[in-house]
Amino acid sequence: MNFVIFQLFLIASFVIFWLIMCFGNLKNRTTQIMGGIFVVLLLMSILVAIFIPKFRFFGVVILILLSPTILYYLIVMKGVHGSISSGDPREMKDAVRLGFTILSGTDPTPKFKKSEKPVIYMTHHFYGGITDNQLMTLVDDNITILAYNVSTLVDKIISLIGGIFVPRGEKGNYEPIKEMIKIEIEKGKNIMVYPEGKNNQNRKSQHEIMEFRSGLFRIAKELGIDIVPVAIKQNHELGFLIIPFKKVEIIVGEPIKTDTLSIEELKSKVKSFFVEKYKS
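The structure corresponding to this sequence follows.
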């Protein structure tokens, strides 16, 4: 009887997850897969621990492995709820800081001298990155993150932390993005972008750097904006899981002047910064 109940709950979990995928409007297949695995594993481990005594130990072990990720997102979602209610994004950012401080034992907020004029921060997605956007909010309070639409919930979080969504236009057509950056710069905002243009789940390692797209470097050069590279040194993510007691370090480089360097030279300087910091 218990096994029948377990099967019914398992079927229900898949149905619920399918509905979340549909109504949550998830556009990123990787997010669908990772979110689906997490939800199914969580439900299965709870049900196994409750209804199947013979495998209760394994259910409890899986729950323990999932608990840091659950804890982090409970903290973050509380911050999201507070920011939505108050309209103040600082509650969301404080929740991210608190979540990482609890899990890693240190506050990852970087200390550096900020530029007096707007800059473009350039960082890169690490493999399976589910927290890189959130970490970047700790770099600068006065920041606009350029992102693609992912899902209703994720888009809401990105909006709360200062994100705007760029169109997925044709390759080489960077004018719409340039105009968006120009508007934010005129407001006095700093910009955060990913020069790789995407989060490739086929990376061989967390810190593997893919080829940079030229458009963002061309925009920075044409608008006369300095580029500030930001490296996130971490090993706290394993697929969709957050691993506790792993130090997360955000390293902010010196501004790179764009007026005297070619686009290829700019790309080389930013990539060299990443390579150097990840090796050290």
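The chain has nine helices and eight strands.
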